[in-house]
Structures are given as structure tokens and as C-alpha cells.
Amino acid sequence: MVIKPMLAYVRTLLTEVLNEGDVAVDATVGNGHDTLFLAQLVGESGRVYGFDIQAEALASARARLEEAGVAERAAFFLESHAEMREFVPAGVKAVTFNLGYLPGGDLSVVTTEASTVPALQAALDLLVPGGILSVMLYAGHDEGKVESEAVLDWAHHLHKKEAHVLMYRFWNQKNSPPILLAIEKRGRL
Amino acid sequence: MVIKPMLAYVRTLLTEVLNEGDVAVDATVGNGHDTLFLAQLVGESGRVYGFDIQAEALASARARLEEAGVAERAAFFLESHAEMREFVPAGVKAVTFNLGYLPGGDLSVVTTEASTVPALQAALDLLVPGGILSVMLYAGHDEGKVESEAVLDWAHHLHKKEAHVLMYRFWNQKNSPPILLAIEKRGRL
């Protein structure tokens, strides 16, 4: 396939932007797949800050990173990603959001626009120019529809001098396929 | 910029898919920029079929390819791209559409959905599996808005087993920025 599937496309961007020693944030740790990917990219001298409000998610993610021998590169916070400014230093190169619910977890615990939009703004503020903020949106459940619309509205109104906002989505899939926003920070307004 | 601008992204796909000796189609020759790019990719043993309904466009494009020393790789047709089946053999690896009007030309001569949608279907039929059909949509003028909606509707209804349809667009630009559809042929239904 010449056209990259969504996850492969995100990972290409993250691979291009992240180098040994960089700082990255996984704003929605979940089962830790993205956290592990980020930890591998930032190397031994880099750091990944991971957020989730479910302890079982963080435990699962930590186990995944331990198994891969890279747990010391990550710091996990049982906190809302909307609070990331309190825990993450400025100078972040990449932040990933994978919205919705924890696969295999409690389906009633979902991200919602009330915290997601402030968290996205915090992430954008923490990024260095040239840094990447990736957001996977799922509109297939009711809260996801409301949340996706709020995120799309927020991103639509970002000033073009502040960020490039790319929408990357497959247009002929059924049942509300995910939408990716890839946001590249330009300057600070 | 890590996120590729639209034209650079299209050219990356075309570069990946086209090799020496391949056949490509520029369905909207215009001033011939895409025709030249395709001719360079298919090499001396390849072939580019170019369509435009304005003779001045074809003359300008042919001059551009002559200047680059690659005019013998292209065949130009003063015909609607909706007729491409009559002139192009099967086995095409890539087709490009850049809809709207000829830059610097007669603004009253625009592509319209009546011919564009049949032309897109013909292009998809001519492609080999793995081939790429790229479509740049401009909704900034009245006919463009109607045409874009028709094309988006056509693409939305392509069966996922027939093609992957990627939408690639910048989400925070003003004044109806272009939308790219990158369509990768899978099988023939």
C-alpha cells in the first residue's frame, strides 16, 4: 500500500520529528502502545510523560515498557491530561492523543471535550516550533461525536501562523472511521 | 516542515508508484507542470498521456516538455478527459487531476462534474491494482463547489475493496483551500 494507513502515517511523522534525548508526551496512555513507541524513539537519554485517569491502564503500560526494557525512559501520571502543564517541562517535541475509551476497559470511561480541548491547547503550548501534536478522533460513540466536533472546531480556528493543521482520513470506510489531525507547531503567537 | 504540503505529498506518492517504462495520465494538462513531472518519472521508455480541452494549454505544456528534452515521452490530446478510454491503453500506474480553470487562462472554461465524474471513473478503471489516482479539488469558485461535492460523493461511495480513498487537507486555512483525494486502486470488482 503506497498510501499509508493512519497509524503508520502518524508513526512516520513521529519518527521524523523525534530524536535521541527528546521529550515526548503520551496524553492518553491506554494500553501503552504509543508510550512504548515514543520511548523507543527518544532513546536512553530521552523522556516520555504518560497520562491516564485509569490506574489499570498505567499498570498495563508500565508492564509493557518493562518487558521492552525501556521503563526508565517513561514517567506515568494518574492525572488528567488537562493538567499536563503542571508535570511536563516546556520543550516537548511530540504529543500523541488517542481519544475515546480504553480498549478492553470500562466503556463508560471516555475522554470528553471538557478536558480534551484544554489538554490539546496545553499540549500545543508545550511544543517547540516544528513539534508535532497528533490526535486520533473516534466519532463512532455518542460522546465521541460531540468530542470530535469540539476538537475539529478548536483545530479549525488555530491561526495558520501558530500551526499547520492537517486532516488525514479515509473517505470511503463505513461506520465512522477515525479521523487523524496532525498539527505542526509553527511559532508562539 | 515535517507535514508535507499538498503538492509535495502528491509528488511523493507519484514518485513511489511510478518507475521507468510506466504509463501515466495527466487528465488536466493545464500549463503542463504535472505532465513534466510525470514524464520525468516514467523515463525514456515510459509514456504520459495528456488531456486538455484548450489548445493553448497543450501548446504551453508541449513547449515546457520540449524545453526539458522529454517531449517524446508525452502524447497530447485536445479531447475531454471523459474520453480517455478511447486513447489510453489499460495498465496505467498513475492518473492526476487538477480541477478548476487554467491558471492565467479563460476563467469561464472550467472542469465540471458532468465530465469530471465519468472521467474519474474511467481513470480508476484504467489503473492497475496498486496504481494511484490523485485529485486536487478547488471549491473556491461556484462551479468548483458543485464539482467538489459531486467528486466527494463519488469517492465516498467507492467500495473499500475497489480502492483506498485518502482525504488530505489543511484544516485551518481560510478561503476554501484545496482538498486532495489520493485514491489507491485495489482490485477490479
TrEMBL record, chains A, B:
Q: Which Pfam families does the entry link to?
A: rRNA_methylase
Q: Which GO terms describe its molecular function?
A: methyltransferase activity
The entry's protein name is Methyltransferase domain-containing protein
GO terms, biological process: methylation
Arranged from A to Z, the UniProt key words for this protein are: Methyltransferase, Transferase
* UniProt cross-references to InterPro entries, sorted A to Z: MnmM_MeTrfase, SAM-dependent_MTases_sf
Gene3D superfamilies to which the protein is assigned, alphabetical: Vaccinia Virus protein VP39
Give the PANTHER family listed for this entry: S-ADENOSYL-L-METHIONINE-DEPENDENT METHYLTRANSFERASES SUPERFAMILY PROTEIN, TRNA (MNM(5)S(2)U34)-METHYLTRANSFERASE, CHLOROPLASTIC
In terms of CDD domains, this protein maps to:
AdoMet_MTases
